[in-house]
UniProtKB/TrEMBL annotation:
UniProt lineage: Bacteria, Pseudomonadati, Bacteroidota, Cytophagia, Cytophagales
Gene that produces this protein: bepA_2
Protein name: Beta-barrel assembly-enhancing protease
Family note: Belongs to the peptidase M48 family.
CDD domains with a match to the protein in the record: M48C_Oma1_like
Taxonomic source organism: Emticicia aquatica
Details of cofactor binding: Binds 1 zinc ion per subunit.
Enzyme Commission code(s) on record: 3.4.-.-
Keywords: Hydrolase, Metal-binding, Metalloprotease, Protease, Signal, Zinc
Length: 279
């Protein structure tokens, strides 16, 4: 009886652990996300996003650049959603309300919050150079969201502090636990959600690069543009005294560029399928 009790406790613990894990689409990497639900993450994300947009200068969609951001975003979103639905991953985008905005800011930065809220800063446009360059950044940022990197980091940070559940979410924000609020601020805070706050971030960066290459290719943008973009980014970083925001969290070092080059052939296959379908 006692043995049975012990083994059932172990089985229960294992079962909980399995529930707390999921696999990242395309890369198949197993990740621990269970301490925060997708819904909770999105609720917090939308509150953070609204706060940011309310105090930012959003460029009108009538402007050519803002229209281009929305167009590229829409193309990649459609391609990614089709892939997720066809491969039984549609739960990843449950509750998503996509938006693609351009805001006035000199910072070289862009981000996608959980729930599909994408923002580009005007400062990064000269480095993007054209539509394909925007697709590089768009693919990468959307990849962070699709790979549930925010939930993963939130769950890891909570586990590290011994917190086993998020607690109530009221009026669009997490209430109660101060520690949890601080973690959410670190993970979701505009501009910091991409930072190397936690040790796992480097792994998430290269995963976002890999997925981003494939996502842009699925939407019909040549992935070769990613190598060119990161080379321009590295150049911009070496010229400026204060490294651009995006570079402080996304080093455009030789390793990154070499990794991208190595991943090109796989991404090219998706690009060829897209091009073939268009003929
Ligand atoms: Zn990133």
């Amino acid at each position: 009886m006692k043995i049975f009790f012990k083994s059932s406790v172990v089985a229960f613990a294992l079962f909980t652990l399995i529930l707390a894990c999921q696999r990242v689409p395309l890369t198949g990497r197993k990740q621990f996300v269970g301490l925060v639900s997708n819904e909770q993450m999105i609720t917090m994300s939308f509150a953070e996003y609204k706060g940011f947009m309310d105090t930012s200068k959003v460029v009108s969609l009538k402007a050519k650049d803002a229209e281009m951001i929305a167009r590229v975003g829409g193309r990649i979103k459609t391609a990614v959603e089709n892939y997720l639905i066809q491969n039984n991953y549609s739960q990843v985008i449950d509750g998503y309300q996509w938006e693609f905005k351009l805001v006035e800011s000199k910072e070289l930065n862009a981000w996608c919050m959980p729930g599909g809220k994408v923002c580009f800063y005007t400062g990064i446009l000269p480095i993007c150079k054209d539509e394909a360059g925007i697709a590089v950044v768009m693919g990468h940022e959307i990849a962070h969201a699709i790979a549930s990197h925010g939930r993963e980091r939130m769950s890891q940070a909570m586990a590290a502090q011994g917190i086993t559940q998020l607690g109530a979410i009221g009026a669009g924000v997490a209430t109660g636990n101060q520690q949890v609020m601080e973690i959410a601020g670190q993970v979701l805070g505009v501009g910091s959600q991409l930072g190397f706050v936690l040790p796992n971030s480097r792994k998430q960066e290269s995963e976002a690069d890999k997925l981003g290459l494939i996502f842009m290719s699925m939407a019909g943008y040549n992935p070769q543009n990613a190598v060119d973009f990161w080379q321009r980014m590295a150049e911009a970083g070496s010229k400026s005294q204060k490294p651009p925001k995006l570079l402080s969290t996304h080093p455009a070092d030789e390793t990154r560029i070499a990794d991208l080059k190595a991943q090109l052939p796989q991404a090219q296959k998706y690009y060829q399928v897209y091009s073939g379908n268009k003929k």
